[in-house]
Amino acid sequence: MPEWLRVVIVGVTQFIILVGLVGLIIPIFPGIIIIWLACLAYGVVTGFSTWGIVLFVLISILMLAGTTVDNILMGAGAHKGGASWLTVGIALLAGVAGTILLPPFGGFIAAPLGVLLLEWWRTKDLRKAWQALVGMAAGLGLSIFARLGIGALMMVLWWVWVVVG
User: Fold this and answer.
1) Kindly report the CA angle at 150 between 144 and 152, in degrees rounded to 5?
2) Residues 88-108: b if buried by 16+ CB within 10 A, e if exposed
3) What whole-number distance in Å separates Cα of residue 150 and Cα of residue 31?
4) 54 touches 127 (CB < 8 A)
């Protein structure tokens, strides 16, 4: 492959990874998936060496972790705020259903609303329900930092892949 083409491929891939990384600040933006797809495209275009396969597997594991960390941290935050695990589970299902039925914002609305309403119904206390919602919001804030860290680590692994070939 000519050097100029290699530079263009690396530059385009880096740009797409940066778009994904910046997008991780927005909870509904699939930044982790975009980073992973950029790495996959890089491998398909340039070929998968032994190091490329190993590093892409690590990048894929991080992608799986990054796509679930927000649900885990938001659920843990809601539970820490007083929500029952049943409420957390139902709110998670409501979030998935909301995403499917009203993309892209449906899940972002349905899950918190589910926590608030279910906890209000369960405890008969709006303040306790609000505390659970605040806990969920705190978990969301933590998840943004976790996803940014995971996305940055994915990018670093891709850089290693570029260097070692």
Assistant:
1) 100
2) bebbbebbeebbeeeeeebbb
3) 11
4) no
Residue 110, burial from CB neighbour count under 10 angstroms (0-12, 13-18, 19+): buried
- A 10 A CB-CB count for 159 gives 14
Mean pLDDT of 35-46: 97
Euclidean distance between CA atoms 29 and 106, whole angstroms: 13
**Residue 1 or 94, more confident:** 94
* Four-residue CA torsion sign, 63, 67, 68, 70: positive
* pLDDT on residue 71: 85
Task: Report the helix count and the strand count for the chain, using DSSP H and E.
Answer: 6, 0
Tell whether pTM > 0.70: yes
* pLDDT tens by residue, 99-120: 888 877 888 899 999 999 999 9
Cβ neighbourhood burial of 163 (10 Å; 0-12, 13-18, 19+): exposed
Structure tokens belonging to residue 83: 């929500």
Tens digits of residue pLDDT in 143-153: 999 999 999 99
Residue with tokens 């885990």: 72
